[in-house]
């Protein structure tokens, strides 16, 4: 591992049992407080450092937003230019945030898949490094540091609840559990309805590509999860659940009221489980929720979404 990671060791909070319908104290790992606004800096930073150590002088990455700003932050810290290709669905505010962090932002394609293919092509043309936002072993290794930190703090937990988009976070959590001798600790993988490619794939027994993303939680908008992620339930106890957009937004607002921290609905999906599916948590004593964060949010947006979803 590089001597000096780019991510921070983030705080670990514990709720009161009364915080949720689960009536259990919940550990909250606050990766919304990373400098890039989300957990993505853990893995993206690790992968960007690796590329620079191996001679890269320029980096290309495709992203709906959070991986892009993490790569932009990493590039600025490492002193190399970064270009982020975003699909047309990425909001103007998020594009501006990525650019303000120091990266060049290009818009290509109507969905992530098209933006990603363009990023690969540009990187090849310029002989630059290409950094995938969720599908790389070093990325997972970096994301797994969140488990390392919880273990070092001595916090006992018996399940991990995390949102799933392309699946990089879940792959990292499983890697982190494994290297800490916690392979028996299950992961509750959460998606919003309308962005549930992992849930659909498990039900079908094969990797499904969703025709479109209909959830407002567009950070979870990978139409297909990584192959490694689809195979993970064969190696580790994983339970797939879904929540509605309304439940995710309600969880974001509740969390903002309680902790004065804004997170995207993609993150709210994980926070929503303790209220939407308390039955799932009934067999656990000390659930750990990865509060993954996200930059595509404001208090005004959350209020508008809440009204739209009523």
Write a structural description:
The chain has 13 helices and 10 strands. The chain is globular. The N and C termini lie far apart (47 Å). The strands form 2 sheets. It has a 6-stranded mixed sheet. It has helices at residues 40-53, 66-78, 92-100, 112-126, 137-143, 145-152, 168-179, 197-204, 227-231, 245-259, 265-276, 278-281, 299-309, and strands at 12-14, 27-30, 59-62, 82-86, 104-107, 129-131, 159-163, 187-192, 238-243, 287-291. The mean pLDDT is 94. Helix 1 crosses helix 2 (66-78) and helix 1 crosses helix 5.
Question: What is the secondary structure topology, with strand pairs?
Answer:
Blueprint lengths: L11 E3 L12 E4 L9 H14 L5 E4 L3 H13 L3 E5 L5 H9 L3 E4 L4 H15 L2 E3 L5 H7 L1 H8 L6 E5 L4 H12 L7 E6 L4 H8 L22 H5 L6 E6 L1 H15 L5 H12 L1 H4 L5 E5 L7 H11 L1
Parallel strand pairs: 2-10, 3-4, 3-6, 4-5, 7-8, 7-10, 8-9
Antiparallel strand pairs: 1-2
Helix pairs in contact: 1-2, 1-5, 5-7, 6-7, 10-11, 10-13
């Amino acid at each position: 591992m590089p001597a000096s990671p780019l991510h921070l060791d983030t705080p670990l909070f514990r709720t009161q049992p009364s915080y949720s319908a689960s009536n259990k104290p919940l550990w909250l790992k606050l990766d919304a407080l990373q400098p890039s606004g989300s957990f993505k800096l853990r893995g993206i930073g690790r992968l960007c450092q690796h590329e620079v150590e191996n001679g890269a002088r320029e980096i290309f990455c495709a992203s709906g937003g959070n991986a892009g700003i993490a790569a932009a932050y990493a590039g600025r810290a490492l002193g190399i230019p970064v270009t982020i290709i975003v699909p047309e669905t990425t909001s103007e505010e998020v594009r501006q945030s990525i650019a303000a962090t120091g990266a060049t932002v290009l818009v290509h394609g109507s969905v992530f898949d098209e933006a990603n293919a363009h990023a690969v092509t540009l990187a090849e043309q310029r002989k630059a490094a290409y950094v995938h936002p969720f599908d790389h072993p070093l990325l997972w290794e970096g994301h797994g540091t969140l488990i390392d930190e919880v273990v070092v703090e001595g916090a006992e937990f018996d399940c991990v609840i995390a949102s799933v988009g392309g699946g990089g976070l879940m792959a990292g959590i499983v890697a982190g559990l494994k290297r800490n001798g916690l392979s028996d600790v299950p992961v509750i993988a959460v998606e919003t309805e309308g962005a549930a490619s992992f849930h659909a794939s498990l039900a079908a027994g094969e990797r499904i590509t969703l025709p479109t993303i209909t959830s407002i939680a567009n950070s979870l908008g990978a139409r297909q999860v990584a192959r490694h992620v689809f195979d993970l339930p064969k190696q580790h106890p994983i339970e797939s659940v879904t929540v509605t957009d309304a439940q995710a937004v309600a969880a974001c607002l509740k969390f903002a009221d309680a902790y004065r921290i804004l997170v995207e609905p993609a993150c709210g999906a994980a926070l929503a489980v303790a209220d939407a599916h308390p039955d799932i948590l009934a067999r656990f004593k000390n659930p750990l929720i990865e509060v993954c964060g996200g930059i595509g949010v404001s208090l005004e947006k959350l209020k508008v979404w809440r009204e739209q979803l009523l």
